[in-house]
Amino acid sequence: PHPDGGVGSLLDAIDLIVPHQANKTMVLHYARAAGVPAERLYFNIEKVGNTSSASIPLAIHDAVREGVIDRPLRVFAPGFGAGAVGGYVVLRVDPAIVAA
Q1: CATH number of the domain to which 79 belongs
Q2: Is the pTM higher than 0.90?
Q3: Domain range spanning residue 28?
Q4: Digit-coded pLDDT (tens) for 18-45
């Protein structure tokens, strides 16, 4: 459901997707399969590698520092782990309150 109660899917309401940074190839594969263009995703795995459970917070920080998040945005941050473990959070990230 749309987080604001409006018509449309959750992904329609998302400004940026910041996934867990363990496997970029796999994430891009599933994004394409879901019809999500790569431009909607932010990755920093090339710079920091797989930082395990810290990957999403580090990626959000880097996106702010690089100006990718330059105004308050609604961010979808899906995570996954070994086996059948997964989850996500939708949050509003305001660069004015993220330490650069």
Answers
A1: 3.40.47.10
A2: no
A3: 11-97
A4: 999 888 999 999 999 989 999 999 999 9
